[in-house]
Amino acid sequence: MTEADAILFRGYQPEDAAATREVFHAAVRQTALSHYTPAQVQVWAPDEVETDRWSRRRATAWTVVAVDAGDVVGFADLTDAGEMDMLFVHPNYARRGIATTLVASIVREALQRGLPRVDVRASRVLQPLLERLGFQLDEDRPDNRLGDQVLANATMHFDLKVD
């Protein structure tokens, strides 16, 4: 049994908005510092985010959350266009297989929808995991910008075998 086996994976609920926002904020502000500067993570995860807007964005995608003892500790979502738009795990739960299980959930959902592939814009933090899981690099984007900051990332995809 892996540590991820003790985690409950379920669909997003509207009351998960604040918790998923907190997971995102903590992951970017702490975990992403291994690859990005404080100024870069500040623009990526600003202090203030409108919770209603955040919740609508999660609700318009297919979002799966990871829950431990009632606390949301990770989440990922898949848009109707087949993009894994978000994948974040709280830093206190890093390296427990949660991100891998979230990716597997996204891939299963994409297969059920009959999508030909899953696309993602992967941060420098996420890219190595996705490569290990079989995602292919489409384009390295060292000059990707968000606001006044450069946030290098990569576009990647995972081909699905649809019967």
Helix content: 25-40%
Strand order of the largest sheet: 1-2-3-4
**What is the highest CATH level, the class?**
Alpha Beta
* Unreliably modeled segments: none
Termini separation: 31 Å
Count of DSSP-assigned helices: 5
By secondary-structure content and strand pairing, the structural class works out as: alpha+beta
Going by CATH, the homologous superfamily would be Gcn5-related N-acetyltransferase (GNAT)
Main beta sheet: strand number and arrangement? 4 strands, antiparallel
**CATH architecture heading:** 3-Layer(aba) Sandwich
Total discrete domains: 1
The value of Rg in angstroms is 15 Å
Strand content: 25-35%
- CATH level 3 topology: Aminopeptidase
Shape: globular
Listing every helix as H and every strand as E from the N terminus to the C terminus, the arrangement reads EHHHEEEHEHEEEE
Task: Estimate the mean pLDDT confidence.
Answer: 91
Please specify the SSE layout and strand pairing.
Layout lengths: L7 E4 L5 H14 L7 H7 L6 H10 L1 E7 L2 E8 L5 E6 L8 H16 L3 E7 L3 H6 L3 E6 L3 E2 L2 E2 L2 E7 L4
Antiparallel strand pairs: 1-2, 2-3, 3-4, 5-9, 6-9, 7-8
